[in-house]
Prior knowledge:
Blueprint (H helix, E strand, L loop, with lengths): L1 E2 L2 E2 L3 E3 L8 H18 L4 E3 L11 H13 L3 E10 L3 E12 L5 E3 H10 L3 H18 L4 E4 L8 H17 L4 E6 H6 L1 H13 L3 E5 L1
Parallel strand pairs: 3-4, 6-8, 8-9, 9-10
Antiparallel strand pairs: 1-2, 5-6, 6-7
Helix pairs in contact: 1-3, 4-5, 5-7
Amino acid sequence: HSLDNQLWLCAGLAPLLEEVPIGKLLARADFSLVQAKASGAYAISQEEKGSDSLPSGKIEWRNWLQRALDTERFFLVGQPVYIKNDTLFHQELFVRLRNPDNTVVAAGHFMPVATSIGLEQAIDQEVQKMTLKMAADINLPVAINISRSVFSDPDTLTAFEQFITEYSQISSAPLHVEISHAILLRHTKSVCRIAEQVRKHGFFFGIDH
């Protein structure tokens, strides 16, 4: 993989089993490779148990994720982060997907693939919509992570700024916005613009390593 004139390697592994058709084997290896690339340079990803319930190829992935968007099967879970004296600092929000059979799929399984097939932006917009709904229902400080899709074009950047404004009008609780160090390096000017907007509303902005 080549990025910013740097060459780095990663690997995706899938077990070679006699009963698995070659097409499914290649799809599993491709899925593992997407996971490895999402983890960064020199990462190795191996197919996990339970991945049989996931789609096999990119067309199946696209259809599966699009159906989940159309039927509103994404949802948010909160992980409480405490500071001293057991005081709640914020709830860090993570997106999950609920299958029709009621099994839950973590973002680590589907977001790297969503990025590779162009659905990351649609899922991010769904997450923003759910965050606003949660803010209207529960007045608690929350933290969200911004993906690179926010910085893909001026319209998505403006849409995220609008999301921040809407959040400030709905909830009096603080919003914590975090981005990865890699996004900061690639989109420095746009990140500074978002940080300024976040702080303008009295919210918090941070870099997640």
